[in-house]
Fold this protein.
Amino acid sequence: MTFAIDELFSVAGKVAIVTGGSRGIGRMIAKGFVENGVKTYITARKAEACMATAEELSNANKGECIALPADLSTKQGREAFVAEITARESKIDILVNNAGAAWGAPFEDYPDEGYDKVMDINVKAIFTLTRDLMPLLKNGASQENPSRVINIGSIDGLRVSTMDNFAYGASKAAVHFLTKNLALRLGPKGVTVNAIAPGAFQSNMMNATLEKFQDKIESENPLGRIGAPEDMAGLALYLASNASKYMTGQVIALDGGRHIGARQD
């Protein structure tokens, strides 16, 4: 056993999947993986954006990024994706369930289809994809050298948001509980399951909110800023490395302390 940092925190040679990896938080994580020697598959519904991101992130001297566009919110899309991955790989070391959706509307007008869409993509798709990829995640894994599932939740699943995102907050709270549920059941199979609960990061989903409220969000944050790409990549790399192999069932807020409360000056 060595405590050398380049071994304890190394992810080189691993194989990862990052859903919703073409932009935003998924892209941040994929970039961190590729730049540290991980063969990284990214998936997104928009094929052109997925292919462009994979080409941009691939680095011959470090890691490889491969685009496999798919709509994981549908059974057909998920089955096709799993079949393609299974044809390419016998083992997956890291699964990052990042793909998500939001829907904002006043309580009185909140549509059924919006609620269903958010729950299907944010919760059901995580469960079904993890279930369907379990043969690859278990292959060669052990409790001493586990495979990793990293779910992307939100601080909106830890505290009540002031925004009208009723389904989103509920879905992310469900992701956090699902993380704990799966951790308990999959630990004996050699798979750890943890969640990252981000606060504000630059992404398409957050663009409209940040355009209006970034100054307010930063003024209320104990660390005085929104998250940076290296913040997200750093935590994902930790959760994928040997340094965290005894950690499972955890929901880690990555928000500069905002979920604790507003800044006190």
